[in-house]
Sequence to fold (227 residues):
Amino acid sequence: MARNILVVEDDNNISNLIKMYLDKEGFEVRLAADGGKAVDEFRAQEPDLVLLDVMLPVLDGWGVLARIRENSKCPVIMLTAKSEVDDRIHGLEMGADDYVVKPFEMKELLARINAVLRRTEIPDDTQKKLSFDKLTINLDSYELIVDGKKIDTPPKELELLYHLAATPNRVYTRNQLLDEVWGFDYFGDSRTVDVHVKRLREKVEGVSDQWELKTVWGVGYKFELKA
Fold:
């Protein structure tokens, strides 16, 4: 069954070009030219992935992303003409899975789409659940349980925490985490990891004295189990 992608872009030339390219790749593509229509389209039929422009009429991309994240973990790739790092970090902090800075090559966009879709797929026969004191990381249901409470967590944050906790006390460099969690074809930089760790700490820090999400200065991060 064809993957459904919602393209939210107010420039018709760009959106039609994306649609033509993705149609040829076998995707089913829907278009929305403003933020209000994007929210309506998303609610009418949740897609497999959203390509979301930042600068939109009616409701900007940040507002659309916030609406999506109210009750969905659907992967979102931000499309933005702003190349500043702070804008990219802002998108990741809000729960975006990736970003593409305009102008971009269609091959690069397709690579990012495929990478994000692969990262959100879990084989049916795979059980991925880790439990520690007051912490459960469940990739089968994509749930994070902290001290008995379910905590809303973007998919990539959960995958990062799972990856670290699956091998306790092992130190990972930022580049290793980019390769192993985001994928070899990820085009981001190491600050992406820092942003996700910061957000995870806000959710889990101080919950238990038996484990800690720890920075190893000058190297990277580890999930430390304390003796």
